[in-house]
Amino acid sequence: RDGVVDGEMHMEMLNAMETIGFDDNTIHSILRLITAILHCGNITFSSTHQTTHNSFADSCTIHKTHSSLTAARLLGVKYDDFVQALTYRDILAGSNEVIRSPLGKGASEKGCEALMKAVYGGVFDFIVERVNESMSKRNNLLDVGRGVVVGGSASIG
Question: Per DSSP, what are the bridge partners of residue 46?
Fold first, then answer.
């Protein structure tokens, strides 16, 4: 293949995460979310038609597969709620009336892609923030080790 040993790369990644200061729960959560994104990429939709208020509307269903079930579980939501979120749109009409309308296959696929991008973006931002915090702490420790008090009015040495 490409000469990369996946198991070794995975261990290097886990070691780097621990070095940065991620605890086991944080690492588990990050991996859970990334795995959910991968499973979302395998979700398949089928077009259907639905009769609502004497009219026909394009709608769709999600195939109940290992990937769709696993994605919902890893994201921490009930499967039926996951399906509803990806295949229906809720519109607030007035101050308290919600109108639920079905989404077609294309709109549901785009919604699933948007979910994947949002989760990935959130995980990425979280990791970058933690790496920056770790780098800042290390730089502060180096400055203190040199006798510089960062943010203070005194300097030692």
Answer: 61
Determine which helix (DSSP H) or strand (DSSP E) holds 139, and give its type and residue range: helix 105-145
Number of neighbours of residue 60 by Cβ within 10 angstroms: 22
90, 99 contact by CB (below 8 A): yes
Q: Which two tokens stand for residue 82?
A: 């996951």
Which H or E element spans position 58? Answer: strand 55-62
User: If DSSP states are collapsed to H, E and C, what string results for 6-59?
Assistant: HHHHHHHHHHHHHHHCCCHHHHHHHHHHHHHHHHHCCCCEEEEEEEECCEEEEE
Q: Which of 100, 39, 28 is nearest to 71 (CA)?
A: 39
The token pair at 26 is: 């944080």
pTM comes to 0.78
Tell me the β-bridge partners of 155. Answer: 148
d(CA 108, CA 22): 35
Q: Render pLDDT for 93-147 as a digit per residue (tens, 0 to 9).
A: 888 888 888 999 999 999 999 999 999 999 999 999 998 888 887 666 555 555 5
Instruction: Give me the numbers of helices (H) and strands (E) for the chain, helices first please.
Output: 5, 4
Closest-CA residue to 31 (of 45, 44, 18): 18
